[in-house]
Amino acid sequence: PADSSNDIAEAARYLVGVGRADCTGPVAQVPLMGYANPDQVGGGLLSRLYSRAFIVADAEDSKRVVFVSIDIGMVSQRVRLEVLKQLQSKYGELYRQDNVILSGTHTHSGPGGYFQYTLFWITSKGLIRPALSSIVNGIVKSIDIAHENMKRGRLFINRGTVENSQINRSPFSYLENPESERSRYSSNTDKEMVVLKMVDEDGYELGVISWFAVHPVSMNNSNHLVNSDNVGYASYLFEQEKNKGMLPGEGSFVAAFASSNLGDVSPNTRGPFCTNTGESCDNPQSTCPVGGAAMCMAKGPGNDMFESTRIIGQNIYLKAKELYEKASQEVTGPLSSAHQWVNMSNVSVELNATHTVKTCKPALGHSFAAGTIDGVGAFNFTQGSVEGDPFWDQIRDQLLGEPSNETKACHKPKPILFSTGEMTWPHPWHPDIVDVQIAAIGSLAILAVPGEFTTMSGRRLREAVKSEFDSHGTPGMNVVIAGLCNVYTHYITTYEEYQVQRYEAASTIYGPHTLSAYIQLYRGLAKAIALNATQDLPRGPEPPLFNVTSMTLLPSLSAESAPAGKTFGDVLEEVRPEYQEREVAEVTFVGANPRTSAENATEHNFLMVERYSNISSSWRAVLNDASWDTRFYWTKGTRGQSNVTIEWHIPAGTEPGVYRLRYFGHYKKKVSLFRTITVPFEGSSSAFQITAP
């Protein structure tokens, strides 16, 4: 038997630090990132977005691993490069491209505009500096906080099954995988959650990371309120539970619900229905008899998207909490990290001794424009299109040029809609240089993947990496996939799924052998870690940082005005004098553009729910704008005027008493012909009573 005293010494080898910082950015007028719907622009706030950072360091040597989960759609190359630049100027060689993993949760309700590749400019109105800056600064700040709070600690891992929280949204593609492979799995989604628990050496709780494969699309593409969706609600519940008595977003315990191989996994568990007729559209094309694919939408478990978000988020939270409380398997052993930059448009893959294939220049197929049952595309293409549509082909040829024969042949059977790898104006439309990265914390290997692996793709990747570790003397590794890391490259399907060209396959941008290429690359990283030879890995070609600081179609912020006889923060529609739990208290103010606040304060709080304390004869804050029970709406009017409505959805169990709703904003004021200044203001509703039920 192993010497147990040695294990204890080994365990105390870790220094652990956790940190959380706001990265919400502008909540108005900026298109939300995820559904590629240009009409879906921000119009307020349901919950704040956070960056959550976890640092594990070896107390004996200089090795460190940083894992950051961020409430954004995906990490872009631009975000990553700017973060690494800031970390280098602050910490020198301590935090680098190989030991820092940045992973997006994949919420579809966060601001866009933080990309340097042209394709993403189309739906997010260009590159929006305030959105990019708030993400970059929030990530760096969360790492700073974790760095400053390092203490001796211990890690525990646990895993379990989450029920009733996901369905496969491309089941017909999944069925293309070999029957012999499918029969090894009980489900067409990965139901397993992996939880990493962090405590200090006295057992004081520091934080938790959960990895689970589900799309955070409980909020659909009709939503205009910035929020972190189902996984963000799970983080909120866990942090509220552990940071008792603190306002949301405050307190030292950090709970991240990170993404995994969620490519074909939807939280909309009731499945796809035609919104016009109510009949099922669970067919290979996800199309309806009347209205086509645009009418086919998946339904969540709740009566509306807000309720569905809470139901799925609560399911995920409850399982994570249970696994966390019971976690007893300690993670021990050395830290290491391996990273390469790879030109993914030109990787040769040895399938076997006689057969070599290649990846392709990036391109998107027709079904990309169809969208999915979680959010239909802007054009009514049907999913599973293997014939080009001549009308769109012509538009594409005029706008964007015909794909080369080489690219067409390479991507077969994908009919190419956008040959992004052959478009370079004004900058390349898609990345060529992609990060592949693994960080190992003892027996836990985190595979940082640059996109959305489908269920079966993820299974193949994990299995390949595990067997690579096994065959080089490090058996029994816990291998988890962290999704949406470092640079966004859309989807990664299996070769078999690719053949039927539904949305996920049409969005597998480097062609049919993309997965095989990644498996080959991640095997190489795993081998280097197992043999302690990471320093010998070629760095690969460095990604470009385009010289574009801001390029946006957003309206500029100009002077604002209040209606005649009113001033900013005045109440236009008052609350009722009395409410009961489960009712909605609502007040409307003379408002100002929330973008002005975002550009003037890094962590601006737009609202407070306050309760009157008779003991101290003063108002006490009970909720802020990070609460999921409050909603902040901004409505633009004419002539520089706008309104703000604040809602408080009073939960069951709210303490009876006297309350009020407060609003905090900034407006732009013209002081001379060429100069405007920013003026802070606030407003408050009248006091109202909440009566016992």
Automatic annotation (TrEMBL):
Record Pfam families: Ceramidase_alk, Ceramidse_alk_C
Cofactor: Zn(2+)
Enzyme type, top EC level: hydrolase
Gene3D superfamilies assigned: Neutral/alkaline non-lysosomal ceramidase, C-terminal domain (2.60.40.2300)
Catalytic machinery residues: 266 (nucleophile)
Reactions mediated catalytically: an N-acylsphing-4-enine + H2O = sphing-4-enine + a fatty acid
Name the UniProt record assigns to this protein: Neutral ceramidase
Species in which this protein is naturally found: Pteruthius melanotis
